[in-house]
Write a structure and sequence with these properties.
Number of domains: 1
Shape: globular
Bound molecules: S-adenosylmethionine
Distance between the termini: 52 Å
Number of helices: 7
Largest sheet: 8 strands, mixed
Order of helices and strands: HHEHEHEEHEHEEHEEE
CATH topology: Rossmann fold
């Protein structure tokens, strides 16, 4: 059997998808709205500095920022097309391209960092995911909070038996690479060989803790209804984690 074609990086795919992103995102509004409500509920006191990391076209992060009213608001993404859209909206004080070396040099210490809709799952490989979380940790001030959601490998909607089987094998013999997926993403008639990652709750605990975070809350948000549950098989995995003071 021949090896699969190497996956195209997230920046290339999101550059190609940027024009279609808004319409696609609107098909997920129940889940997205529920995650945003959870975050707004946690940020009753306006943060001094908020960063929307992996901002996409910027619209969602800006709506959230309007709700929580940070004193200073920044956005960052890896896709030049997405960065351009955020800049066009003009709400963030600065929009960073994370491809630029030392991109965060001018960023003040962050006290609310949102990293939403499986941004971490676009990062290939566990080591790189650990490095990204360590980088986000380093951008935050002590006491600052990270809000992050990721795709759930144990989601019961994939089938009760599938979910149960995955939970058993992942408990007995953990191997994070089982959450790696490959697929062709068709954008404007072109098939992009894409990759992604689905996380287990134990993996998220490991990744967040090894970066230095303290986990404050772990919940699931149903992909179609937006229902929030403490049962971590019921939807997207959502975490509130803090940098110890
Ligand atoms: C599904 S979109 C989510 C966008 C936005 N957070 C939202 O919820 O609408 C994922 C975004 O993550 C960005 N991304 C992927 N890998 C990244 C990385 N390593 N650093 C920063 N952004 C990244 C992509 O370019 C894309 O805009």
């Amino acid at each position: 059997m021949s090896d699969p074609e190497p996956a195209v990086d997230a920046a290339t795919i999101y550059d190609a998808f940027a024009d279609k992103y808004r319409a696609y995102s609107e098909t997920k509004s129940a889940y997205i709205g529920a995650v945003d409500d959870l975050i707004a509920g946690q940020l009753k006191t306006p943060p001094s500095v908020m960063l929307d990391y992996g901002s996409g076209d910027g619209v969602r992060g800006i709506e959230l920022a309007k709700q929580v009213a940070p004193v200073r608001f920044f956005q960052a993404d890896i896709s030049d097309e997405m960065v351009a859209r955020c800049k066009e909206l003009g709400h963030a004080e600065q929009v960073f391209s994370v491809n630029t070396p030392d991109w965060a040099a001018d960023l003040p210490d962050v006290d609310a960092l949102v990293c939403l809709w499986n941004v971490l799952g676009h990062v290939p490989g566990t080591d790189a995911r650990r490095n990204l979380l360590a980088e986000l940790f380093s951008l935050m001030r002590p006491g600052g909070k990270l809000f992050i959601d990721v795709n759930n490998r144990h989601y019961v909607g994939y089938g009760r038996w599938t979910s149960l089987g995955r939970r058993i094998i992942d408990a007995i013999k953990p191997n994070y690479t089982r959450g790696d997926i490959r697929f062709d993403w068709n954008i404007d008639g072109v098939d992009y060989p894409a990759s992604g990652h689905f996380f287990t709750p134990a993996e998220m605990v490991d990744l967040l803790k090894s970066a230095g975070f303290k986990i404050e809350k772990a919940q699931s948000v149903h992909y179609t209804t937006g229902d929030v549950s403490n049962d971590l098989t019921e939807g997207q995995l959502f975490y509130v984690a803090s940098k110890p003071a």
